[in-house]
Amino acid sequence: MKCLFKIVSILVFVFSLSSLHAQNSFSKGVNLTNWFQTGSAWQIQFTKYTKQDLVRIKNLGCDVIRLPINLHFMTNGSPDYVIDPLFFDFLDQVVDWAEELQIHLLLDNHTFDPNVDTQPSIETILLKVWPQMAAHYKNRSNYVYYEILNEPHGITTALWCQIQQKVIDAIRAIDTKHTIVVGPSGYNSYTELNNMPVYTDTNLIYTFHFYDPFMFTHQGATWTNYMQDVSGVPFPYDATRMPATPASAKGTWVESSLNNYKNEGTVAKVKQLLDVAVNFKTSRNVKLFCGEFGVYIPNSPHTDRVYWYDVVRKYLEEKGISWTTWDYQGGFGLFKKGSNELFDYDLDTEILKSLSFTVPAQSEFVITPETKPFDIYTDYIGQSIFESGNAGNGTIDYYSSDAQTGKYSIYWTGSNQYAGPGFDFKPDKDFSQLVTNNYELDFWVKGDTPGTKFQVRFVDSKSTVTGDHPWRISYDIDQTKVTFSGTWQHLKIPLKSFRETGSWDGSWFNPEGKFDWKAVDRLEIIAETGALGTQKIWFDEMKINGTPITSVSENPESSTFNARAYPNPFSGETTIEYSLPESGEVEVSIFDLNGRKRATLLAEKQEEGKHQIRWKPNQQNVLNLNSGVYLCRISSSGKEEIIRLIGKAEQ
Predict the structure, then answer these.
(1) pTM above 0.85, yes or no
(2) What are the b/e assignments for 203-240, b being 16+ CB within 10 Å?
């Protein structure tokens, strides 16, 4: 009996060692999408994410990031596919951050089109790009991984894996250190795992993706035939909540899938399908990784989406399979639907809980007046600013080496009329105090052609208020402002010097004096008067500059109606007070931060003088609003004033 016990103990010990051997060095994380997924290295907006974003991701409890890269587009193309040094310049910094923070970083070759079959000729490209990657990163830490190709499809797994073996060999000829991520065809389908060969290389991780039931996870997906109008499919299946087949999908595979959803949309079925991958992992005793799983946000019921993540995540972890969810920000992401996707304000805490992520404190976002100088472009586009320009058949290069200061500048040429560089502020910015305090748009410019003209303009955000439009406030630059002689010129344009020039909102609207410095959406540089042609223009060191403001008055003496609210912040109710300089029709309304009107407190004629209104949100049917931030607009005689109200939940 003692002998039998020893044998069993030894077997258990050996099995434990074997299981331990087949575990990955990381457990859970995210795909950091739409960063390096561009048409060239020159289109990457590098400052979309920073080291601070990696810190935030790690603080969620993540120990791995899968970084999708359009690797083949980061080269000079056929026949040599030489990787652009600019790409390495960017990626090296990300690798530095990951190593410093001790986050595993999967360099995922995401060069694929879901609607175009993977061709055997891709072997030529892979055997060009991966040896270069291996040579560049062979001496970096083990936090770096190579994923050969995302979701090969339209090619048999047998043929694909022959190609994959050649790529493994090509990498190993240079780099024997780093782990390589390999997967089957069929979009990295778990059903194709068993068709993969037994690779002799032991430093591999096998990957698969999971999006089942597809009818649930991809409802509303515009890139999948007939799915764009599917909405409200529950998980798990619930006959009372099943939507009808959309008219656009009648007679298609979608209709039959919806009819069969009672069999496919169950927890048991999800686990049964995942078991295909689990059995592969167990039988091969290999490291396995779920590189993608997720639910598309727009048309999926939120509670069901939360539940699906909980089911899938728990089962993967129960079976010892590490994972990265698709994705961090975006259509499948961790942020609330329709939000600005700000880490401190917009995280979907229920999704985070279902993924067993650490849930950071969240607060209500309030647009507050800018009080300090900030960069728009200095080598890179500034923080929380996103490229929004239109080259218009010309060229806009945000990484020109012809810089006034630093490494890069913006180069612009050849654009059609009404095209040019653009900078989108996300979220919108409140410039009101900067204008009052004589701030300037400060930048360097160089042009090679005398007589060059262009316009610089700010565009405000369009609210839901009837009659509002994205108004422009502009400044024209021509030979009277700059000598376009091939030398750098320094311009400082006071914000007060900009003049309203109307709005294009489906049709043209003449200026009405309604530009709102409190809600600036973007900055544009535009070939307003005609096509740019062969003229060449460079910009560098662009910023909003001035003396930092030490205090900001919520109710400056120069306000239109001297409006104020007390108490503010308030709990339960507040009193809004304002003074009319003349008699007239007055409207006092409450809006939320998205510009939606939530209540009209008053709409009548009032006499000149001081007036008061008491506001009790819960007694005035404002959708039971009892906490948060609101905007109160007082308008009369073509003038208006907006004050911010901060409500606190009643104790």
Answers:
(1) no
(2) ebbbbbbbbbbebbbbbbbeebebbbbbeebbbbbeee
